[in-house]
Structures are given as C-alpha cells and as structure tokens.
C-alpha cells in the first residue's frame, strides 16, 4: 500500500523528490502518512478534496484482502 500511495503522489506533484510516505501499523489499522512539498499540497488535495478522496478510494479498493483498516493522512 505504501508504494501505491507513493506512486500516485509522485505522478501528481511538481517535486516528486519531496514525496514521503510513512506507515504506522497498529493492531486494528494501518495509517499511511503522506508528506509533500508545501507548493504541491493543493495538487494532492484537489478541488474540494476530490483528489485526496480518489487516492483514499483506490487504497481502500486495493486493501480488500487486508483485514485491517487502512487510512491515508495528508500532512
């Protein structure tokens, strides 16, 4: 999942070298923390949060086989 979010984010931003994804694993969930350059924050979030919602939807669809809840946080 971490690689999936990283690939999607790098395709969206102007500074792909600044994209960083951290994975925080707990018993019940996995949190993917996406960090991008401040200039690229708007591109990752999108108008009215539509791009961020699309990223979360893709991750949720890809994580069907996982038995944990996967969250994507944009920092």
TrEMBL record:
| GO molecular-function terms, A-Z | RNA binding
Q: Which compartment or compartments is the protein found in?
A: Cytoplasm
Does the record bear RNA-binding in its keywords? yes
One Pfam family name is: KH_KhpA-B
Q: What is its main location?
A: cytoplasm
Q: Which CDD domains match?
A: KH-II_YlqC-like (cd22533)
* Keywords assigned: Cell shape, Cell wall biogenesis/degradation, Chaperone, Cytoplasm, RNA-binding
GO BP annotation list: cell wall organization; peptidoglycan biosynthetic process; regulation of cell shape
- Carries keyword Transport? no
Cellular component annotations (GO), alphabetically ordered: cytoplasm
- Which family does the entry's similarity section mention? Belongs to the KhpA RNA-binding protein family.
Q: How does it assemble?
A: Forms a complex with KhpB.
Entry function: A probable RNA chaperone. Forms a complex with KhpB which binds to cellular RNA and controls its expression. Plays a role in peptidoglycan (PG) homeostasis and cell length regulation.
The record's listing under HAMAP family reads: KhpA
What is the name of the protein in this document? RNA-binding protein KhpA
Source organism phylogeny:
Bacteria, Bacillati, Bacillota, Clostridia, Eubacteriales
Which gene does this sequence derive from?
A: khpA
């Amino acid at each position: 999942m971490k690689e999936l979010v990283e690939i999607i984010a790098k395709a969206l931003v102007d500074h792909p070298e600044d994209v960083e994804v951290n994975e925080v694993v707990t018993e019940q969930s996995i949190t993917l923390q996406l960090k991008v350059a401040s200039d690229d924050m708007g591109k990752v979030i999108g108008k009215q949060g539509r791009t961020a919602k699309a990223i979360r939807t893709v991750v949720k669809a890809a994580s069907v086989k996982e038995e944990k809840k996967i969250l994507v946080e944009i920092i």
